[in-house]
Design brief:
The chain is α/β, with parallel strands linked by helices and 249 residues long. 40% of the residues lie in helices and 14% in strands. The chain has a six-stranded parallel beta sheet with strand order 3-4-2-1-5-6, sandwiched between helices. The longest helix is centred in the first third of the chain and has 21 residues. The radius of gyration is 20 Å and the shape is globular. The chain starts with 17 loop residues before the first strand and ends in a 13-residue tail after the last helix. The chain binds 3-methylbut-3-enyl trihydrogen diphosphate (2 copies) and magnesium ion. The site of one 3-methylbut-3-enyl trihydrogen diphosphate (IPE) has 11 residues, from strand 2. One 3-methylbut-3-enyl trihydrogen diphosphate binds next to helix 1.
């Protein structure tokens, strides 16, 4: 038998279902200019707006943005309240823009611990945009990957206790179905800005096979050209999920 080596095909761009962004570097951006840290958060909204527009225009189905982690409560009360105000103000200000672009808002994280005014506007916007058919924008707010796993452990333990499930029947898929993020596909690409290469408790379970792109650019300076660089990086990767190779179509 003669072994004929197949001509290697040029890899086609990979499908990107879910892009996730750890928007980091707001504080440093402001500090570099000698301004208070919260100025960076204000400017960060501009980058976020642009990112949402680009993803929506390019037909990316899911975009998660990490807006506030369960550990971010450790910051000064002034900084926390600026971030909270900014979130509710932006949601109010851009509600028509979300509708116009058919963007559907989802929230990941524990809203119960937020001030009622902030929680209400998130809930209102989730409700208002629920029939929109375009980009699914997932805002991770008061979100922590560890907390999400613990919440799933509690729910599955309850199911076992109530006799709805056998311990030995708990599979990965089963466990995953108890996690809040299981309603979205796992992120294909995670962009972290601000030159820091860690997950900081973001999407711990579902990021198992996500590609990670670290950008040196601080979030307030992250623009469409930078986003294109990240997407180009993604198209060059070979995703194997543990296998020796994965054929690209
Ligand atoms: C990210 O920017 C925004 C949030 C965590 C809310 P940072 O505020 O963490 O900015 P740096 O990392 O201190 O520069
Ligand atoms: C991660 O950034 C959280 C968000 C971007 C919302 P942090 O600035 O909180 O992460 P660490 O503290 O540098 O790990
Ligand atoms: Mg940071």
């Amino acid at each position: 038998m003669v072994y004929v080596k197949k001509k290697e095909a040029r890899p086609a761009p990979l499908p990107l279902q879910h892009l996730a962004v750890i928007m980091d570097g707001n504080g440093r951006w402001a500090e570099k200019k000698g301004w208070p840290r919260y100025f960076g958060h204000f400017r960060g909204v501009k980058s976020l707006r642009q990112m949402v527009k680009s993803c929506s225009r390019w037909g990316i189905p899911y975009l998660t943005v990490f807006a506030f982690s369960t550990e971010n409560w450790k910051r000064s009360s002034i900084e926390v309240s600026v971030i909270m105000k900014l979130m509710s103000r932006s949601l109010t200000r851009y509600q028509q823009e979300l509708d116009r672009n058919q963007i559907r808002l989802h929230v990941l994280g524990n809203l119960e611990e937020l001030a009622p005014s902030v929680r209400n506007i998130f809930n209102e916007m989730v409700e208002r945009t629920k029939n929109n058919t375009g980009l699914k924008l997932i805002v991770a707010v008061n979100y922590g990957g560890r907390q999400e796993i613990i919440q799933a452990v509690r729910a599955i333990s309850r199911a076992v206790k109530e006799g709805q499930m056998e311990i030995d029947n708990i599979t990965e898929d089963h466990f995953y179905s108890y996690m809040s993020s299981s309603v979205f596909p796992p992120p294909d690409l995670i962009i972290r800005t601000g030159a820091v290469s860690r997950l900081s408790n973001f999407y711990l379970w579902t990021a198992a096979y996500s590609e990670i792109y670290v950008s040196d650019v601080l979030w307030p300076d992250f623009n469409e050209a930078e986003l294109k660089k990240a997407l180009h990086f993604y198209t060059q990767t070979s995703r194997r999920f543990g296998a020796a190779s994965l054929e690209r179509k």
